[in-house]
Description:
Layout: E1 5-16, E2 27-42, E3 48-52, E4 59-63, E5 69-71, H1 81-90, E6 98-103, E7 108-110, E8 116-118, H2 123-138, H3 145-157, H4 167-174, E9 178-181, H5 185-188, E10 192-193, E11 201-206, H6 213-226, H7 228-250, H8 254-275, H9 282-292, E12 297-300, E13 308-313, H10 316-329, E14 334-336
Parallel strand pairs: 3-6
Antiparallel strand pairs: 1-2, 2-6, 2-9, 3-4, 4-5, 7-8, 9-10, 11-13, 11-14, 12-13
Helix pairs in contact: 1-2, 1-3, 2-3, 2-4, 6-7, 6-8, 7-8
Amino acid sequence: MNNEIKVSIPGKIVISGEYAVLDGAQAIVSTLNQKANITIQKSNENHNIYTTSLLEGVFPFTTDDDSNVVWLKADPGVFGLLLQNAFKTLNPILKEKVRIAVDSSKFYRTIKDGTAIKLGIGSSAAVSVGITQALSQYQTLRSSPENLLTQANSIHQCLQSKKGSGIDVTCCFANQGVIECTKDSVKNYNWSILNWPNGLHLKALTTSQYGSTKRLVTNYQRASNLYPKEFKSALDQFLDITQSLSNAWKSEDVGLIIDLLKVYDVQIKKIDKIGGIGIYTQVHADIQNIASKHNVFYKPSGAGGGDIGIAFSSSLEALSDFSDAIGTVAWNIGCLD
């Protein structure tokens, strides 16, 4: 190869539709400024090299006839799984020895004690999309965009034990700002691009807690089987609310959007309590209490269970006051640009 291949893929936040999207609802999802960078360049070594921003050192590897990655020395463990999944899914033909580097440092936050905390903004989805696109660019014959999205989702699903809806991968792959999509968007290669409503202000917050999407989705599905009647009632309301949210967003009715998000949040809390899922942790409850005192609405984003949340307001001043208040009472809460 003559030139370095470099791909940058953004992270995401889920504005609405989490959990409901698993049962066919529409979700509103947005990209963020934080990006994962994947590069492929020719290696001067006599073997392939993999590096990740999450670990020090280099990880030499080769591949066998079945496209399995074989680590020659140290094994990067979970931090090499996406690369392994990518080679199994894409079966790339390497024309020479290559160096593949994954930089997802923007998806982590270092807290006071020096610990790196993963932000819940779709790092694995972004890296899955990035590796897929980079390896496709490396190949002489490239896949269609439809195939690339399907492949990226398959790579990501290997980490989630086939759990999840794929909306995070769709958002990262589309890279078009705010979109509306469903769990069938990967299969149908279909989503809608939305404008950001004028007068709606948002702040994304990180909680320094880790939430496992796979665990929480498993808990949700188990609870829906244990309490079918209660979940059916909540689901019907979910579907109505998400449709109303879609209409309100497209009409840029900021007041109605925030009101509907509050109603949606009530349903999230209801199913969380019924099924003991673990969506709404104490830190989310604490942040929401502070938000309400500043005329700001706050909710978990995505699967919940810690990770990340988003605060909304029609007043930029109120949102700024809320951010200041969070900074004085909770050192472990961070804000994303």
